[in-house]
């Protein structure tokens, strides 16, 4: 018994020493920040005050660059705009990798689900990103406009029917259905009835990925005790399965994507001019990927030039997207395309309802465009400066994504 107690004491001391080492990273580097707790890091303060207020207080106290611990995870918080510019642009090649979507997942080169454009590290990210970027050139966006317009017309039908009944409804849900409709059509060439089907299983499964609560006890356990991380992930998946009528949402959505891929591969007539096809037909000249990363920005016409250059180069090594990269990236596009835009639209609508004068100005700008005999389409809406300001301000006030 005494031996057991002695061993237990040694184990506890070693464990505490390990945690002390983990939570001393910033001190060793001379980076200021709030004093971490040996068990929780700084997570309790974050939970108590909320991340935004907490960050504000820490920045006031410790300066524009500080370090804190999200459980056992060291986080470097940078709020100096010049330093951020260096990280995102000038020195981007040193900061190419990003954090995983969920704070408790980690990139795993052996896991096929990790192989999306959102998670891939270094050169693999650059390769896949170079393949995807041409989807968002101005020419491609114009091609998609017809599909987007027909989805918006469907949404207007739904809104009209509700207005006639004088019903109250949740605008966020309406926008989620709209963006799901748009992304499935423009990225995967699939027609769904998501806008009109109140029980859409596609929407139910996708929504589950965004049921987030920063105080989620499962996430807390995984962050504070990394040993239980995998167990916590399994538990999260199990709960999501229960909420999705007994089907694992990830498996269900990736299963749907796999079926579309299979159809495209086996039936040449199913071929479409969309993002999925671009990935399936992908080939990239690996040497040519040593490009300026800023050229990978969506809507950048430079990309079209790069494409032309790529076609001329035939003697270099060609790299295709792997099956895992295609499936995982298609899944990410489905999630990213749906959630961000619907959140942005919902907040913009909320702000317009709160600021009637702004709504009136915007209405007048659009009305004048139509009175000049122009249609509301990709080219013309890009020439509405007030609309641009409204959207930018809404994104500034309520960003749908934080980095
Ligand atoms: C208002 C709408 C949107 C917002 C606010 C938004 C925001 C963001 C942000 C902040 C990032 C991370 C950038 C970084 O780490 O440097 C990102 C990445 C990404 N977004 Fe969006 N996004 C929006 C719409 C979309 C749409 C419609 C799609 C797909 C059709 C999409 C697909 C992606 C993808 C694939 C990435 C990863 C890109 C990469 O790793 O190269 N996003 N988005």
From TrEMBL:
Transit peptide as UniProt keyword? no
Alphabetically, the GO molecular function entries are: heme binding; hydroperoxy icosatetraenoate dehydratase activity; iron ion binding; oxidoreductase activity, acting on paired donors, with incorporation or reduction of molecular oxygen; steroid hydroxylase activity; thromboxane-A synthase activity
Q: Does the keyword Transmembrane apply?
A: yes
One biological process term from GO is: prostaglandin biosynthetic process
Which cellular component terms (GO) are annotated to the entry?
Answer: endoplasmic reticulum membrane
Q: What does this protein do?
A: Catalyzes the conversion of prostaglandin H2 (PGH2) to thromboxane A2 (TXA2), a potent inducer of blood vessel constriction and platelet aggregation. Also cleaves PGH2 to 12-hydroxy-heptadecatrienoicacid (12-HHT) and malondialdehyde, which is known to act as a mediator of DNA damage. 12-HHT and malondialdehyde are formed stoichiometrically in the same amounts as TXA2. Additionally, displays dehydratase activity, toward (15S)-hydroperoxy-(5Z,8Z,11Z,13E)-eicosatetraenoate (15(S)-HPETE) producing 15-KETE and 15-HETE.
Name under which the protein is recorded:
Thromboxane-A synthase
Name the source organism. Trichonephila clavata
Q: Which gene encodes it?
A: CYP3A8
């Amino acid at each position: 018994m005494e031996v057991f107690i002695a061993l237990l004491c040694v184990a506890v001391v070693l464990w505490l020493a390990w945690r002390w080492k983990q939570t001393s990273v910033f001190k060793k580097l001379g980076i200021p920040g709030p004093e971490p707790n040996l068990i929780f890091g700084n997570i309790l303060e974050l939970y108590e005050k909320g991340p935004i207020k907490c960050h504000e207080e820490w920045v006031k106290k410790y300066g524009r660059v500080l370090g804190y611990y999200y459980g056992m995870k060291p986080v470097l918080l940078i709020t100096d705009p010049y330093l951020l510019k260096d990280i995102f642009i000038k020195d981007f090649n040193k900061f190419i990798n990003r954090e995983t979507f969920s704070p408790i997942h980690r990139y795993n080169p052996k896991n096929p689900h990790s192989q999306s454009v959102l998670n891939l590290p270094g050169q693999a990210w650059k390769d896949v990103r170079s393949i995807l970027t041409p989807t968002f050139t101005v020419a491609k966006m114009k091609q998609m406009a017809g599909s987007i317009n027909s989805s918006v017309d469907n949404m207007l039908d739904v809104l009209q029917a509700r207005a006639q009944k004088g019903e109250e409804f949740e605008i966020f849900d309406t926008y989620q259905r709209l963006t799901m409709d748009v992304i499935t059509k423009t990225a995967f060439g699939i027609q769904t009835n998501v806008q009109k089907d109140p029980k859409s299983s596609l929407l139910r499964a996708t929504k589950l990925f965004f049921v987030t609560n920063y105080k989620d006890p499962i996430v807390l356990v995984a962050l504070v005790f990394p040993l239980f991380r995998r167990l916590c992930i399994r538990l999260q998946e199990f709960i999501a399965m229960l909420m999705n009528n007994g089907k694992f949402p990830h498996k269900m959505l990736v299963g749907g994507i796999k079926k579309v891929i299979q159809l495209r591969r086996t039936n040449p007539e199913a071929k479409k001019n969309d993002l999925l096809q671009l990935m399936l037909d992908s080939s990239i000249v690996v040497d040519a990927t040593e490009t300026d990363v800023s050229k990978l920005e969506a809507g950048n016409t430079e990309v079209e030039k790069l494409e032309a250059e790529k076609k001329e180069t035939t003697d270099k090594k060609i790299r295709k997207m792997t099956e895992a990269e295609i499936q995982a990236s298609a899944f990410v596009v489905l999630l990213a395309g749906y959630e961000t835009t619907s959140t942005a639209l919902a907040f913009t609508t909320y702000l317009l309802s709160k600021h009637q004068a702004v709504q009136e100005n915007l209405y007048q700008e659009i009305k004048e465009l139509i009175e000049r005999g122009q249609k509301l389409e990709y080219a013309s809406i890009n020439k509405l400066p007030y609309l641009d300001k409204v959207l930018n301000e809404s994104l500034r006030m309520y960003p749908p994504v934080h980095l």
